[in-house]
């Protein structure tokens, strides 16, 4: 579970990039975080993951305060950032072992997870190659596998489907659903409205740092008395505010 209470962040001390937001992402749900460029999605995700400190408010991950107990809180989640261009000099397998070492995943368990995940994402044959030789989609996949290697209960993904081929995108969506159905939390940001429409149990729409809406798609549709696509609703909601 992720609990965000009265969280505010300003970069310049004048305007708030995130403005007093409240969100609870429950166990067992896939939660989509939607907003236009500059709306405040990445800033929010950076605060949830402890990369940035909020100015005000609290963020709890499975009940643990990310600001007060960062190490303990960081063990609760796996974070897939929007740019997968990291550790390029390492071979895929070296990166995965590095991640497994950080999270102290026992040897037998990591071997099994690496095999299962790399086969599922069809990247097993490339694990001996350096990440710098990988395509964008392959880099995305290796980062996802690295994040999942310690089997975190909370998944946080920033624009996770961009760059993935349709098959890998399908597999990741399937894994997100399985993870949520097993009673875990999946939180991801997206611009791809159709993805949110198909995948999410609930969504939040953020604009200029404020939450415009939080709830299920049915609630959204009822609320604005529209039965059209989420894209239309989304555009209307963001334009009318
Ligand atoms: N490091 C920074 N320094 C100053 N301002 C920033 C910084 N990062 C973001 N901002 C500003 O904070 C606001 C929210 O940006 P943020 O990156 O959180 O939005 P976003 O919804 O993730 O957008 P995108 O979809 O483009 O990634 C924007 O006005 C942005 O210009």
UniProtKB/TrEMBL annotation:
Q: Origin organism of this chain?
A: Maledivibacter halophilus
* Highest taxon listed in the record's lineage: Bacteria
Q: Which residues form the signal peptide?
A: none
Span of domain ABC transporter: 2-233
Question: What Pfam families does the database record attribute to this sequence?
Answer: ABC_tran (PF00005)
Per UniProt, the keywords (alphabetical) are: ATP-binding, Nucleotide-binding, Transport
Q: What is this protein called?
A: ABC-2 type transport system ATP-binding protein
Which GO terms fall under molecular function for this chain's record? ATP binding; ATP hydrolysis activity
The protein's matches in CDD domains, at most eight in alphabetical order, are given as: ABC_DR_subfamily_A (cd03230)
Q: Which PROSITE patterns match?
A: ABC_TRANSPORTER_1 (PS00211), ABC_TRANSPORTER_2 (PS50893)
């Amino acid at each position: 579970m992720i609990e965000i209470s009265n969280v505010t962040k300003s970069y310049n001390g004048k305007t708030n990039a995130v403005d007093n937001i409240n969100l609870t992402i429950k166990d067992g749900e896939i939660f989509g975080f939607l907003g236009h460029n500059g709306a405040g999605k990445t800033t929010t995700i950076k605060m949830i993951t402890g990369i940035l400190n909020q100015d005000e408010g609290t963020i709890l991950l499975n009940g643990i305060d990310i600001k007060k107990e960062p190490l303990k809180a960081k063990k609760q989640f796996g974070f897939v950032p929007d740019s997968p261009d990291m550790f390029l000099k390492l071979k895929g397998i070296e990166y995965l072992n590095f991640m497994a070492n950080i999270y102290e995943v026992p040897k037998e368990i990591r071997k099994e997870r690496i095999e299962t995940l790399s086969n599922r994402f069809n990247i097993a044959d490339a694990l001996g190659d350096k990440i710098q030789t990988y395509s964008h989609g392959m880099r995305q996949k290796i980062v996802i596998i690295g994040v999942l290697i310690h089997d975190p209960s909370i998944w946080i993904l920033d624009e996770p489907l961009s760059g993935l081929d349709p098959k890998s995108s399908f597999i990741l969506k399937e894994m997100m659903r399985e993870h949520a159905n097993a009673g875990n939390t999946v939180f991801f940001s997206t611009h791809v409205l159709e993805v949110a429409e198909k995948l999410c149990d609930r969504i939040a729409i953020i604009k200029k740092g404020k939450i415009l809406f939080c709830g299920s798609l049915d609630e959204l549709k009822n609320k604005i008395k529209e039965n059209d696509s989420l894209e239309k609703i989304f555009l209307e909601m963001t334009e009318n505010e």
